[in-house]
Design brief:
The structure is a single chain. The chain has helices at residues 14-24, 37-40, 43-52, 57-63, 65-74, 88-97, 131-141, 180-191, 211-216, 224-233, 251-258, 271-274, 287-299, 302-319, 322-334, and strands at 2-6, 28-32, 78-81, 102-106, 125-128, 145-147, 171-175, 195-199, 236-239, 263-266, 282-284. The chain is an alpha/beta fold and 336 residues long. The chain folds into 2 domains: 2-151 and 321-334, Rossmann fold (3-Layer(aba) Sandwich), CATH 3.40.50.2000; 171-319, Glycogen Phosphorylase B (Rossmann fold, 3-Layer(aba) Sandwich). Helix 4 packs across helix 6 (88-97), helix 5 (65-74) runs parallel beside helix 6 (88-97) and helix 11 (251-258) packs across helix 14 (302-319). The protein is globular and about 65 Å long.
């Protein structure tokens, strides 16, 4: 199938993983950024223009002209929009440029949906990872919305290197953006004697200064095989969630398990539908339980750690890959 992906492409991004996974599955895939490369290179001004342009649909259509040109040139059989900023005017023009069905697939927390302009577009289907949002879209807006969790990419989300040996004192790896609630949680863990290894992008300037946490910050953003190696070598990989993260959880859960990591994730009611708890992942509901489980997992004997690692990776690779998610999308669109 010829598939056009619309969204930002960079290493280990949602677009990158979807692109490589579909190509590995035998599809012919092309990606195009929502905005032109020149606009992306203009730094903070370009970012602000991208954000504010949504308020002026005609301007957005002009700025997103590259999407239409890509569709006209590539002639896809399916268009997947992986960016929530596509204007409804651009979508209307996109439908004129090609006859393919157009679906919206949003992998992030519903708290980041902003103006929700995607509901204006008339997509053939919408796929989101929060069942509450999906239910509301279906009941009150009569949209063809479907629940679809995030995924892993076995090309680089796989066991690389060896597992950490048992440790008397826990060391927890934290990867991703440091937002306010994650900062407070990490500070609480450090105060209770839990050592941290923190990876991710530069921290926001509005966060408080904390010398202990800064000393634990490795100053590196993990991608692909580097991520796989660090996840598997960590005594425990912590998967904390944003307050507005619903039952779909997040990509780190699927990526870390695929890498064969020992994962300790914040509880959500849908978790047992996705993984065996505690046979494949462990889960906490309070900071006290988190600290206790982190200590237990760090001290777990090598054979038990290996069994959990293999089971988690097997589950992720057999049920939670991008190819599995794409098959669901195609099935939904095929059923009309």
């Amino acid at each position: 199938m010829r598939v056009l992906l619309i969204g930002s492409l960079y290493p280990d991004s949602f677009v990158d993983n979807t692109l490589s996974s579909l190509r590995d599955g035998g599809h012919v895939v092309r990606s195009v950024a929502l905005f032109s490369g020149a606009l992306l290179r203009r730094g903070p001004l370009g970012i602000r223009l991208q954000r504010e342009a949504q308020a002026v649909p005609r301007l957005t259509l002009l700025l997103q002209r590259g999407v239409l040109e890509a569709a006209e040139d590539f002639r896809p059989e399916l268009v997947l929009v992986l960016d929530d900023r596509l204007a409804h005017t651009t979508l209307a023009a996109l439908r004129s440029a090609c006859d393919a069905p157009v679906a919206f697939w949003y992998p992030d927390s519903p708290g980041n949906l902003g103006r929700e302009v995607h509901v204006l577009g008339g997509y053939d289907a919408l796929f989101l990872k929060d069942s509450a949002v999906v239910g509301r879209y279906r009941r009150t807006l009569s949209l063809n919305a479907h629940f679809l969790p995030e995924a892993c990419n076995p090309r680089w989300h796989r066991p690389v290197g060896g597992l950490a040996p048992p440790q008397l004192e826990p060391e927890v790896l934290v990867a991703g953006n440091v937002y306010a609630t994650r900062f407070v949680l990490m500070r609480a863990l450090a105060a209770r004697g839990v050592r941290l290894r923190i990876f991710g992008p530069r921290w926001a300037r509005w966060l408080p200064r904390d010398a202990s946490l800064q000393a634990s910050n490795r100053g590196r953003y993990l991608v692909r095989e580097d991520k796989a190696r660090e996840f598997r070598a960590a005594p425990v990989v912590l998967n904390s969630l944003a307050s507005h993260e619903g039952d779909g959880l997040n990509c780190r859960l699927f990526e870390a398990t695929a890498c064969g990591a020992i994962v300790l994730t914040e509880w959500r009611d849908r978790l047992p539908d996705l993984y065996d708890v505690p046979g494949e992942v462990s889960s906490y509901r309070s900071v006290d339980e988190l600290v206790q489980l982190a200590r237990e997992l760090a001290r777990m004997d090598a054979s038990r750690r290996e069994a959990i690692s293999l089971a988690a990776s097997r589950r992720a690779h057999t049920e939670h890959t991008y190819q599995h998610r794409f098959a669901t999308i195609v099935s939904v669109l095929g059923s009309g």
